[in-house]
Amino acid sequence: MYYNDYDERDYFDGSINWDDYKETFVRLVVERKMNPFLLDRVIEKLNEAGCHNVSIIDQTQLDKATKSEEKADLSKDTLSLICEEIDNTEGIADPSRLKDLIRDLYIEAQTL
Predict the structure, then answer these.
(1) Element spanning 4, H or E
(2) At CB < 8 A and 24+ separation, what contacts does 13-18 make?
(3) pLDDT tens profile 97-112
């Protein structure tokens, strides 16, 4: 079963016969979730229908992970990225000392 509340589908207008899901294993694929309350109601309705199990596959989380992976800057090496993160993080008392420590640990780890 696919769930997508972006298209404003009414899951409770009678078009879905919830009894068809009785004594079944349901895989609910969440494509888009704009209204978490509506998703909760759909899951509740599946459970009330007597499903053995409802597995939820949240595609929205996979899409977010894919987008964040696409933003990765592949032109920089690992140590440069770590040092940039240290520079951009507030609350570090001595960023130079921390970067030196990280650099030493990184070089030592590469020799192992």
Answers:
(1) strand 2-4
(2) 18/45, 18/46, 18/48, 18/49
(3) 999 999 999 999 988 8
- Tell me the pTM: 0.54
Rounded to whole angstroms, the Cα distance separating 78 from 84 reads 10
28-45 as b/e, with b when 16 or more CB fall inside 10 Å? bebeebeeeebbeebbee
pLDDT at 67: 56
Instruction: Answer positive or negative: Cα dihedral of 38, 39, 45, 47.
Output: negative
Tokens coding 105: 């640990």
Q: Are 56 and 28 within 8 A, CB to CB? A: yes
